[in-house]
Design goal:
351 residues; alpha/beta; Rossmann fold; 7-stranded parallel beta sheet; 15 strands; 19% strand; binds nicotinamide-adenine-dinucleotide
């Protein structure tokens, strides 16, 4: 197969690219390396993945922008599947620069879909959407404190289902732009017969994740713990997320592409109720593993933060024949080992 991975120099995209290249498929990665402009990100970290992929057999790297309709159409003409991960990823950046957020997330996704439609073949498209499409409706589910974490009160033991309303709530520009793109992906699946899959993902983590304060919290905590850097927790730290190891996510994407269904799949993809962490629990775990706790400062809650988000993964499990497998402990240990081996990459980034 020929696979296009947009945003392929990023965290998730690079793992998708590697997985397909390893099994002998040809992968085209398109990335404009804009991740380097994210607040606190180091250009060295952005270049690291790019250079790694450039040396990977079966991977071609194209430095380009998903908003470039001609470029994307040209590449899509020859591909058999698309994994679209390129995006503006930080809620905080979307608040200060909603134009860039809209153009990257909405227009960029639209260009990818249009290129697939114009190709006139049933090209599977996997879109990396987010739990943020549900906005603050998640908070209305009812949560209570239980030790170092919040939990849903009752009736949501399986997590947040895809049927939760996306209406009548605050979203943040990031939530709105991802939702607009999410709807376009669904619509192109229904209208034009493209086998599209919207993966509404919560917290994905793994090796090579250059988490910063604004995005990728598990990696940000891991890096801070190992380098002894101070951390700011917005809120009380009892916020809970389900945690999915990136290798498990790639398996879910591959399962869809191997048996793509027409009509527009929408599913929540995450670690689910078994694989969750609160911020405070992660700090405790890191202290046990590294022998030290990073200095922590507490600040006000962030706009539209969700007290608990846990994905109901039953639809993804049923449709894809897939299960999240890696425990948060194993995921975090793998990340600690990777960061410890690549300390030099993080020396000049500021947290
Ligand atoms: N990591 C998570 O926990 C998570 C959770 C939910 C959703 N997502 C979504 O998954 C996708 C990938 O996330 P990630 O964690 O790998 O982020 P990432 O920042 O590591 O990767 C995104 C990549 O897209 C590239 N990019 C941005 N704008 C581009 C453009 N206009 N043209 C070409 N490339 C561009 C960036 O340079 C970066 O390399 C994003 O769309 C994000 O919204 C991620």
């Amino acid at each position: 197969m020929n696979i296009l991975v947009t945003g392929g120099a990023g965290f998730i995209g690079s793992h998708v690219a590697e997985a397909y290249a390893r099994q002998g498929d040809r992968v085209v990665v398109v990335d404009n390396l804009s991740r380097a402009q994210l607040l606190h990100a180091s250009p060295r970290t952005a270049e690291f993945t790019w250079n790694l992929l450039a040396k990977t057999p079966n991977v071609s790297c194209v430095r380009g922008d998903v908003r470039d309709a001609a470029l994307i159409a040209d590449i899509v003409r020859d591909v058999d599947a698309i994994v679209h991960t390129a995006g503006q990823t930080a809620v905080t950046t979307s608040l200060t620069d909603p134009v860039a957020d809209f153009e990257t997330n909405v227009v960029g996704t639209f260009r990818v879909l249009e290129a697939a439609r114009a190709a006139g073949r049933a090209i599977p498209v996997v879109f990396t959407s987010t739990n943020k499409v549900y906005g603050e409706n998640v908070n209305a589910l009812g949560v209570r404190e239980a030790g170092a974490r919040y939990v849903f009160t009752s009736g949501h033991e399986d997590g947040v289902p895809e049927t939760l309303s996306v209406d009548h709530t605050k979203h943040t520009p990031y939530g709105a732009s991802k939702l607009a793109a999410d709807l376009y992906v669904q619509e192109y699946g229904r209208l034009y017969g493209l086998p599209t899959a919207v993966f509404r993902m919560s917290c994905i983590c793994g090796r090579r994740q250059f988490g910063v304060e604004d995005q990728g919290w598990v990696a940000h905590f891991v890096i801070s713990a190992l380098l002894g850097r101070p951390l700011t927790i917005y809120g009380d730290g009892k916020q809970v997320r389900d945690v999915l190891f990136v290798d498990d996510l790639v398996e879910a994407m591959q399962a869809f592409i191997a048996r793509p269904a027409a009509g527009g799949l929408v599913c929540n993809v995450g670690g689910g109720p078994r694989l969750t962490l609160s911020l405070l629990e992660l700090l405790d775990f890191l202290e046990r593993e590294t022998g030290r706790r990073p200095p922590v400062r507490f600040a006000d809650w962030r706009a539209s933060d969700q007290r608990v988000y846990v994905s109901d993964v039953r639809r993804a499990a049923d449709v894809l024949g897939w299960r999240p497998r890696t425990s948060p402990a194993d995921a975090v240990r793998a990340m600690l080992a990777w960061v410890a081996d690549h300390r030099e990459l993080f020396q000049e980034s500021v947290s």
